[in-house]
Write a structure and sequence with these properties.
By secondary structure, the chain is an alpha+beta fold. The protein has helices spanning about 5-20, 35-45, 50, 65-85, 95-100, 105-125, 135-150, 150-155, 175-185, 200-215, 220-250, 260-265, 270-285, 295-305, 410-420, 425; strands at about 25-30, 55-60, 85-90, 130, 160, 165, 250-255, 255-260, 310-315, 320-325, 325-330, 340, 345-350, 355-365, 375-380, 390-395, 400, 410, 430-435, 440, 445, 460-465.
């Protein structure tokens, strides 16, 4: 068997082992024009009929290398014609993008590239994007993440299949790919910037890995790939286990917050606790990879403390709070300055807060209870309110009221602490007030004693508030 046949066989075996190719799928092939992506294109076209694949080529011109980049783009279009495949290409000024976003050139290029991939998928209605990452890229990625202090997920390196992306060449080294291209007489482009040691990845590629291979282990690339596989398997297990553990711990969840039962949460090992929180953060739309080691340590310390009301801000939009309800992971909404008139005998839905409010005037029945067993439904003396207008609004720092049963005014801020109202609910509290700014009801918690029903009450105003 020739080396070409062996290489193709290894390619198919790897794709089968990792579940990368599925019959009748539609795959976009990311082709830069370099040797890796050209070999990937050649191999996928070689199995196109066998798997009944629909293939297209996609290419992004980063506009970083002037005429050279334009020549790469033209070359990829020629390849498309050669293989009988259509080409989707786009030009984006990555340098300008990175400067605007305050990113490194490498980070900006990656963001732009993957945004292009996702848009190309959506526009073409294809299933996957195949990229030309290979074993040397994997080794570089593992070392890069190690030097940055990454966790298990980062040390797992490049996944063969994640979301809509497949990397069918991770089984092969750069040298093996180059040998295949030369044997098959495949034309490809060479990017001179890949030789520059200005970039960290290139310094790892041309200096660190050769040094490790010479001084410590000639098979360093292979060993780093094996290490990535081990870390990735651990990551997959922990992620799946943590997802189940998260569901076991959850007391409450919606699209803005997740509340964990603290004692159950504390029963897990620290590594599982981190993965539980990470799973919750992903559910709320935050990438947990953005959290530093120190921030994770603060989250664990918070969960083990008894300091109710303490919080850790893990991002500009997400807080983790320890309160009487449990461990609260909450996405902060932009505060809504809410003020709305309400009239008796009407029902309102406030979409920005996702709440319903309604009130109804009724004659008081002699035997009717004056006290509600449901804090979201209350009754007040309408005879004391009939000459006033009513409004719903946010609470204010200086708000005071007379909680039912009290003859002295109390700050709402003190009331919520004494009543142990969870922190994550306090910023959403509403009050029903009169046009004289008298508080009638701290909605969902307590009416004002001044408006309670008395033996002389003839008409009651029934109030109800509920979340949608």
């Amino acid at each position: 068997m020739s080396t070409v046949q062996k290489f193709r066989q290894s390619f198919e075996r790897y794709c089968k082992l990792r579940g990368l190719l599925v019959p009748n799928e539609k795959i976009l092939i990311a082709v830069s024009g370099g040797v890796d992506s050209v070999v990937l294109l050649d191999l996928l076209v070689g199995v196109q009929d066998k798997y009944q694949l629909q293939l297209k080529v996609i290419h992004l011109n980063h506009r970083l290398r002037g005429k050279e980049a334009d020549a790469d783009e033209a070359f990829v279009h020629q390849l498309g014609q050669q293989y009988g495949l259509s080409v989707i290409s786009e030009r984006i000024d990555v340098r300008t993008y990175a400067k605007k976003k305050k990113l490194s050139l490498e980070a900006g290029a990656r963001e732009v590239r993957y945004d292009f991939f996702h848009r190309a998928l959506a526009q073409s209605q294809f299933d996957k994007v195949a990229t030309g990452h290979q074993a040397d890229d994997q080794a570089e990625t593992v070392l890069l993440h190690l030097l940055r202090g990454s966790g298990i997920r980062g040390l797992g390196g490049i996944s063969p299949h994640r979301d809509c992306f497949i990397r069918p060449l991770l089984f092969a080294s750069r040298a093996e790919i180059l040998q295949y291209a030369q044997t098959q007489k495949l034309s490809f482009r060479q990017d001179a910037s890949n030789l520059s040691c200005v970039y960290t990845r290139n310094r790892i590629r041309w200096k660190l890995i050769p040094y490790l291979a010479k001084q410590f282990n000639p098979q360093i690339v292979k060993k780093l790939n094996q290490l990535a596989d081990i870390f990735r398997e651990n990551e997959e297990f922990l992620s799946q286990f943590a997802y189940q553990a998260l569901n076991d711990c959850v007391k409450y969840r919606d699209d803005k917050k997740i509340v964990l039962e603290i004692n159950r949460f504390l029963g897990y090992f620290n590594i599982v606790k981190k993965y539980i929180v990470a799973s919750a953060l992903r559910e709320l739309g935050l990438d947990p990879e953005l959290l530093s080691f120190k921030k994770w340590e603060r989250v664990l310390a918070l969960s083990a403390s008894e300091q109710k009301g303490k919080r850790v801000r893990v991002s500009p939009v997400v807080d983790i709070i320890l309160d009487h309800a449990g461990l609260v992971i909450e996405k902060q909404s932009a505060s809504v300055d809410f003020f709305h008139p309400v009239q008796p005998n009407k029902e309102y839905y406030f979409s920005d807060l996702s709440i319903w409010f309604r009130s109804k005037i009724e004659q008081r029945e002699g035997s009717e209870s004056c006290f509600s067993q449901n804090n979201r439904r209350e009754m007040v003396d309408y005879d004391k309110l009939c000459d006033r207008q009513l409004f719903l609004r946010n609470i204010k720092p200086a708000d005071r009221f007379y909680p039912l049963g009290m003859q002295q005014a109390k700050k709402i801020s003190d009331f919520v602490i004494d009543e142990k109202i969870p922190l994550h609910e306090r910023n959403r509290l509403l009050v029903l007030v009169t046009n004289r700014d008298e508080i009638v009801w701290l909605c969902g918690y307590r009416i004002d004693d001044r408006f309670k029903i008395t033996p002389s009450t003839r008409r009651v105003l029934k109030l109800e508030i509920k979340t949608a």
